[in-house]
Design brief:
2 domains, 0% strand, mainly alpha, 133 residues, flat, 5 helices
Length: 133
């Protein structure tokens, strides 16, 4: 390899590094605003996603209670809980009028005790909590 080829190779490696670094940086900064809702269509989509997330939360919690480790339900549960929290916050931040804010306070109040329960290992003694007794 002559010196010209060496310089080009070195430049390409530097360019690749800058490109990768730039893409990672863009992904990081775009993820900071990933849960910002800017219009009603997004709000409706997020509300639907919340329903789906509740189903995944229950599935993972049940799998943990049954001792099933397929696809790591413990880690998935943690990830889904974080996502649920972030999306609920985004919905709350998007709500402008007091009526919508008040309607979102109810899910937040319901979520907090459920969130604490989901952080505990499921046992048969917790069954009355889930049955509403």
């Amino acid at each position: 390899m002559n010196s010209l080829e060496w310089d080009r190779s070195k430049q390409m490696k530097g360019l690749n590094f800058k490109l990768i670094f730039g893409l990672v940086g863009m992904a990081f900064f775009s993820s900071l605003n990933a849960f910002e809702i800017t219009n009603l269509a997004q709000a409706v989509n997020e509300a639907g996603r919340q329903r789906m997330l509740t189903q995944r939360l229950l599935k993972d919690y049940a799998m943990i209670g049954l001792g099933n480790t397929f696809k790591n339900p413990s880690q998935d549960l943690k990830n889904i809980m974080k996502m649920f929290d972030e999306h609920l916050t985004a919905l709350t931040n998007f709500a402008i009028d007091p009526e919508t804010q008040n309607s979102l306070n109810r899910p937040r109040k319901l979520w907090e005790p459920i969130k604490k329960m989901l952080q505990k290992t499921p046992t048969k003694r917790m069954l009355p909590f889930w049955q509403g007794n």
